[in-house]
Amino acid sequence: MKKGDKNSGFKIPEDYLDTFNDNLLNKIASEDQSSIPKNEGFKIPERYFNSLHKNITSKLEEKPTKIITLKSYKKYYYSAISVAAVLLLFFTIQPKKSNNISDLASSEIDAYFEDTDLGLSTYEIAEVIPVDDLELDDVLETTINDEDIVNYLDDNIDYINELNIESDEY
Amino acid sequence: MIAEQTLIAELKQTETQAKAFEMLVNTYKERLYWHIRRIVLNHDDTDDVLQNTFIKVYKNIHNFKGESKLYSWMYRIATNESLTFLKSKSKKLGINNAELQETMANNLKADVYFEGDEIQLNLQKAIASLPEKQKLVFNMKYFEELKYEEISSILETSVGGLKASYHLAVKKIEAFLKNE
After folding, report:
1. Burial of residue B49 (number of CB atoms within 10 Å: 0-12, 13-18, 19+)
2. If chain A, 170 residues long, is cut into consecutive pieces of 10 residues, what is the mean pLDDT of each piece?
């Protein structure tokens, strides 16, 4: 075989190239259809569409009653809202009572001081509260009578002279 | 079929309303029926939703501004009604939307108004597995043969987005059917 001879012995059917385009398009079309079916298989009752308009009109005619019930609900909503508004006003507009210390239960005061960190040291408290105005009873829960005091001193103090504080020591 | 503008004008007038409404129902009932049926799948639910759609159209025709075409407005109402219906159905059953879709497709086998074979049943299962948007687009393009421009005005999304959704939907359905 001479170099450059292009005939390699292969042959193609007549008209192949002429009909190629059509064949290709047909194949594409058929493949496209086979992959996803066009028919879904849904059915509808016979004569369904014939009665549809009648069904809708009868539904439209019965609707107004429903609207009336909705309106009557509205009335209740309004009265409920007005009651709520009156209550709200009642609680907010009440005149403010001036709070007196005497109005508070002492247990509440105790609880307040127990729960709240005042941020004051004992020295600071002592500065604020005048000692002269305080009686022993103000800080003690049980009252102590004089006899008890004398008995205590008798038992615990050896030299009664220690208690003789000179007036000039102040 | 009379011109859309005339029909709308007649729907808005009390004297001509009844007749125009009948015309409207008869013109659009089949198209809207199939649109809804493909979303809710069973006939009885479709009937409910279709009737509600027409009632909504009837009551709201006065608010129809004519910014879009009448049919795309009605399709939009039908789509919204169908999706709302499915949402309340899934709420009632206490399951999420994907579970409801699966149940609905499985129920088709026992549905007297479904006579599809195995392939058609699988097709419905494949469609049921798609996200909501892709499902809508696929049904409207493939079965209802609406144009992208029409779908775009019904769903109020861009044509480009719709094309992408459709392409994805077809790929997923083909893959689903191949695996079955």
Report:
1. buried
2. 61 80 73 69 87 88 60 75 88 68 74 74 72 70 79 76 58
**Six-digit token pair at B87?**
């949402």
HSE-up of A140 (CA within 13 Å, CB side)?
7
pTM: 0.59
On the question of a common fold for B1-115 and B119-180, the answer reads no
Residue A41's region, left for phi above 0, alpha for psi from -120 to 50, else beta, is left
Chain B residues touching residue A48 (CB < 8 angstroms):
43, 47
Please state the ipTM of this predicted complex. 0.74
CATH architecture of residue range(s) B1-115: Orthogonal Bundle (1.10)
Cα A157 to Cα A168: distance, rounded to the nearest angstrom = 23
Count of H-run helices and E-run strands, chain A: 6, 0
Cβ under 8 Å to A: B residues 108-147: 112-117, 119-121, 123-124, 142-143
Q: How many CA atoms lie within 13 A of A35 on its CB side?
A: 15
Q: CB–CB of A43 and B113 under 8 A? A: yes
Class of domain B119-180: mainly alpha
Distance of alpha carbon A137 from alpha carbon A133, whole angstroms? 11
Residue from B10, B15, B42 nearest B124 by CA = B42
Q: What would you report as the CA-atom Rg of chain A, rounded to the nearest whole angstrom?
A: 54
